[in-house]
Amino acid sequence: LAQLMYQFPLGVFAIALATAIFPRLAAGAVEAGREEFKRITRQGTLATLWEGIPASVGLMLVADPAVRLLFQHGQISADDATLIARSTLFYAGGIWAYSLLQVINRAYYALHDTRTPLIASVLNIIANLVVELPLIWWMGEAGMAVGTLVSFSVQAALMLWMLDRRVSGIGFAQLILPTIKILIATAVMLGVCLVIKASPLFPTGASRTVWFTQLGLIASVGGTVYFVACKLMRLRVAIKGEH
Prior knowledge:
single chain, mainly alpha
């Protein structure tokens, strides 16, 4: 159930974006110099980070009320919901990496390279086991989520670096400033949401009405703050044309 929680933003945005840009990646990969391929890869990476980073933080913020609202009924007790929310918290931290891999893998496919993503996936499984097996004895089932978070984050960063070397530089230096803006906007969103959660106006209790209100309040305020912060910093994310 915790895996379902992080797969929702992954399926709604990241997979859809990666699928949409794949034809343009493939077309750019056969051009001399591959400038179009590099541009689309940069923009796909930026768009993914623009969604993935705040989605990671946002799901961590709403993990508890969202899990209780959706799952705490029938055979799932309050204690069960607490365990699901804890795993969701760690899975959420890797949404940006899961999302980024959707774009990176398709960039490799556009280069007619299916071997590298395959090998990386196998190594990911090994790294996942190395991290999660010891943690399971200490953290329980949440250790599996931590292993997934660590292994996918390392895989995303490593494959991005390898892709940059593969095509003699994609120009990721151009993404440094926009990424900093994304991090700033996310930090502002996090700060405002934490203030709201600590406020006496934030509803407390154990009912569906309370959980729904908590979820709606954090999601609406957090989303609004993030978009406004991006707007104020003039952060533009688009696949058509340069940002």
